Fold:
Amino acid sequence: MLVLKGVSKHFGPLAVIQRVNLEVTKGERHALIGPNGAGKSTLFNLITGHYRPSAGEIYFKDRRISGLAPHEITRLGISRSFQIINIFRDMSVYQNMRITVTARHRMSLNFRCQVASLGQVREESEFVLSRVGLLPFMNEPAGRLGYSQQRALEVGLAVALDPELLLLDEPGAGLSPDETRSIVGLIKEVTTGKTLVIVEHDMDVVFDLADRISVLNYGTIVASGSPDEIRRNETVKEVYLGNVLETER
Amino acid sequence: MRPSVKTFTFLLFVAALALFPFLGNKFHTYLLSECFIYSVLAISYYMLLGHTGLMSFGHAALFGVGAYASAITLIRFSDLPVSLALVVGGFSGLICGFFIGLIVLRLKRIYLAFGTLALSQMIWAVAWKWRIVTGGDDGMTGWSSRQVTLPWLGRFGLINVTFLYYFVLLFAFACVFLCWYVTRTPFGETLSSIRSNQNRADFLGINVSRARLMVFAFSGFIAGISGGLFILFKKAAAPTFLDISTSFNILVMSVIGGYASFVGPIVGAFIYVYMMEYLSSFTERWQLVMGAFFVLLILFYSKGVVGMVEQLTTKVSLFRGKKRGKTTCSS
Structure:
């Protein structure tokens, strides 16, 4: 479904991503792990069109998407959430969701009808809000929600686009273990049957959610395989897991 | 305010405006006409700044292009109805807005402001130098004797203050209503999302560039109509209509009233016109007083007069709630 072929990204002399090859098949739950600064978020930014690769090509459903604008890529069926919460803070929770749902229906530039009169948009917005548990707060300004609720909205917006491929960038960042558990439950629930690529630092989350894992270090993929393979992999232990396991102990 | 109270206030306001020429004197009828025209201009600017978050320093260009286009239509095609000249003004503003929007498509913040300023100055230079068409610094005149025929009601001259009042009021009302309608469409909400967080809008699959182009064109259309109304009101068109000072006056109006709310710029336009009129009758240095007022306002009430009124009414209702021994917190 998603194929990266020899993708590189340089910022001046700094090579952040180097010749990354990656394949994500339909229905797969793929986790990207690696130490800070390994290039995980950059990889997301390359896939979603925020950056243009310096070299290499990215294909989605056999169509080349590298070089397309973010909104074009999103319309092809890829949506993402952000590591740093990226919502419409001064608008209500409901408006956040409604903007997303109208965008999904390609109605964002429609100026012939009143947005409040669109029954289907309202139903879908309320449906997604109820799934992420934000229906009781729908009239609050999104910026006034608690942090974990903003996280839920962040994920909710990405899910509301009903994408074929969902990219989640550290959905548990900054959450307490309890909150993380609840958001993982939420992700599991709302992403059933979807292809998922997730960046996450919390290894419990990763091993719980993913059925394949790729490990990124200094901009290259050092290992890729099932959770068990990754757990046993010596290089991975050396560059990443060893560290994590030790600090956890 | 409760919705019913809001509707009632609004209807009362409309009725007062509709009956004003019979109740008030000619002077205020004339002045209110000017307020309406500036309201249209200010609301066209609201669509860009308050609603979409696009700060333009060259909005006068759209106003001026509409004014000149209407003026040229009135002079060259003396058989065409006056209201058609306004429509020509509107569409000229729309085309101008589209091209300005296209050129500054990728610019944001201060770069956008100065990009639009530079472009508006170029248009100003054209109006100033292209004497054959625009009359240069002499400006254009020659339609003050024009008459408008209304079915059943007869013919009215543009010099008739009462007629002009209703003519302007009608167009102003239509323009403001159109803007209000647009803000409530999916497109309107998309524009707000661009103001709130353009980056996220991009990643929701919204074509931000196209939305920006559309709002520039729409804003140009409304501003163009206000330009057309203005030359009917002033009976002349001059290059000053599209110079920097006009652009900044629009900005000042918006900020005085409260640029982020829909009614703010309209309130600002009324305050601006009345202050200008009264202050200049007291002193030649009226701009000094207006400037001081402006500074004080943004220091203490950055949301303008509308924000100030909102704050004060909230305080009053809180105070009343305390007096009655219950807490009401209506915003």
The first helix of chain A runs from residue 40 to 47. Residues 2-248 of chain A form a domain with the Rossmann fold fold (CATH 3.40.50.300). The radius of gyration of chain A is 18 Å. Chain A touches chain B at residues 48, 50, 69-71, 74-75, 79-80, 82, 86-91, 95, 98-100, 102-104, 107-116, 118, 121, 157, 161 (CB under 8 Å).
